[in-house]
Amino acid sequence: MISTLAYGLTVGGILYIISIGLSLTFGTMRIVNFAHALVYTLGAYILLTSLQKLGVGFVPAAGIAVLAVIPVSYLIERYVIRRLYGQSVDYAIIATYAVLLIGVDAIKWIWGAIPIPLSDPVGASVLILGVDLPVYRLIIILISLLIFVALEAFFNRTVVGKIIIAGLEDKDAVASLGISVDKYFAVAFTLGSCLAALGGVLYAPITAVNPYMGFQVLLICFAVVVVGGLGSIRGTFVAAFALGMVMSITGRFWGPAADTMVFVVMGLILIFKPIEA
Amino acid sequence: MNLSLTLPEAFVALLRKFDVLVIIALFLLLTLLISMDRTIEFMIFCIFVLAYDVLYGYMGRLSFGHMLYLGTGAYAFALTGELISSNPFLALLVAVASGALLGLILGPIIVRTTGACFALINLAFNQLGFFLALVAFSKWTGGEDGMSVYVDKVWIFDFSRKTTVFCFALLSLIVVIFLMRRLTNSLFGLLLRGIKENETRVQFLGYDTFAVKMVAFIISTSLSAFAGALFILNYSYVTTSFIDPLRSVEVIFASLIGGAGSVYGALAGGVSYKLISNYLPNYVQRWEMFLGVILLLLVFKFRAGVWGYITAWYQRLEATPAGKSGQPPEVGR
Q1: Signal sequence span per UniProt (chain A) (predicted)?
Q2: Which helix (H) or strand (E) holds B291?
Q3: Which end of chain B has less neighbouring CB within 10 Å, N or C?
Q4: Domain that holds residue A232
């Protein structure tokens, strides 16, 4: 029971970290961003290379991975996302999916298609209420909570964060104040991408690193964003942990159904509360 | 008919009049250029693209989980063949009926939504269907291993021979094209396009848009199921790849390449996509990257697709003698 709970919180934490970016892009630009999965996968691969080639520890390697996706996300934002602003959702879906295809193929080109396992960077485990829990999982839960607190502060205390939140509510009104909203949306996009890369980095030791790792996670993150309410930062937090728990509890009773249960929940939410988008 | 037609105009008028014959001729030509097996696959895929286009091209709703409806038809066909009767026509009928039934059940939930929500809710249901086929009902569907299907010979239809399958698929495609053209040129087709442009205004005119959307959705799901059943008739084998949500993008790409919202566009898109995905990997190792670049170009530069540009080019050709300047590309009807 304790281990199910801990697993749910771990998955929830990672889902939260990845979903923030998706939620921001959907909230600000009404774009379903498939390219998010690319940044996530790229983060995991750069971590891998930093560990193997540079021989640095896990924490510096994670830092390199998170920073390395900034130029990539800038290119995606500048040349794909920004050109799609205000256009039909369909084209945004297709274009960002095309970016994902190109990126995943590039990853296969550089790193190969074979999944690469990664060992637990901490390796220790602690005994909590008679259950052995890996310390690494607890660290993930802690990091996700820290990120939640930091983002709350960012969006409520800083000017940049407040502009982004205001832009989520009413873009035109913010623009009429003489603020170049697109620039701030670009900041939000990059922030979201860095967090996605961090999600990839944190999840890499739990699963094996492979070029298609982004696809499945992305679908689940969409479910998180939909359940949490599009563009709602706190809603995403609650939904991520709720769905993480749904996954771990379902997985405990019937392993293969874990992912599907998330979509069932999303379907139910959409039936009773359809989004206008 | 106008008597003062120029030669290219007369030629195009002739093509329009006998378009079904032209389509048959082009597919026969395709069997010579590539193999008959591949052509059968292309034609069935074209039926799927046409079914998809009812929602995407005409009604303006992008579904990201249309493999669910294809897969429903595929599994309904296979299971009927396995459990009830090995008459291929009964199995086809059951497949189409189950596609329609699924549309009837899911429709009230799905068609109320628009945009990203429509795309994602289809995806969610597709994921559910994939799970049912792969894990929950694996006792009957064979799970990941799939199952073989054998059908009886009925009258002159011996589906173990590829020629018969080819003729039947071609006949089905022609019937579907005919139906689609009747449908899209009717008031119903006009209402669909109206809903794409502005649903509220269609409601203002006194039409029940929910009913229109439901009918369009059910037509799309049953036709997709029909295409799925035909695929199984051709392969005599069904696996979960026929209901895999990750493959849903194929039909979107095909629709976009060809040009959405036109019967010929769907055909051009279906054949082009299949050509790309079948032959490009032989020449270009990084074909997914190539496909991605093509898609980006389509979205940013050539939004009207292959057929849209052919139409636009022809319109320019028509307009030039009269001294008009070239018109912006418009999606062909």
Answers
A1: none
A2: helix B287-300
A3: N
A4: 2-272
> Which is nearest to A3 in space by CA: A123, A129, A118?
A129
Nearest CA in chain A to B119: A90
Specify the number of domains making up chain A: 1
Which pLDDT belongs to residue A275?
61
* Subunit contact B295:A101, Cβ cutoff 8 A: yes
Distance CA A55, CA B69 (A): 50
Q: Is residue A258 part of a domain?
A: yes
Residue B327 in tokens: 């018109």
Prediction pTM value: 0.83
CATH code where residue A114 lies? 1.10.3470
Q: Is the pLDDT of residue B281 over 60?
A: yes
- Per-residue pLDDT of A201-246, as tens digits, reads 888 888 888 888 888 788 888 888 888 877 678 888 999 999 999 9
**CB-based burial of residue A202 (10 Å sphere; 0-12 exposed, 13-18 middle, 19+ buried)?**
buried
User: Residue B222: pLDDT above 50?
Assistant: yes
Residue A201 lies in a domain: yes
**Structural fold of domain B34-301:** ABC transporter involved in vitamin B12 uptake, BtuC (1.10.3470)
Domain-located, residue A121 = yes
Residue in B121, B246, B295 nearest the CB of A270: B121
User: pLDDT value at position B321?
Assistant: 57
Residue B185 has pLDDT above 50, yes or no: yes
In a domain, A277, yes or no: no
Chain B residues whose C-beta sits inside 8 Å of any chain A C-beta: 56, 60, 62, 64, 109, 112-117, 119-121, 123-125, 127-128, 130-131, 134-136, 245-246, 249, 252-253, 256, 286, 288-289, 291-293, 295-296, 298-300, 303
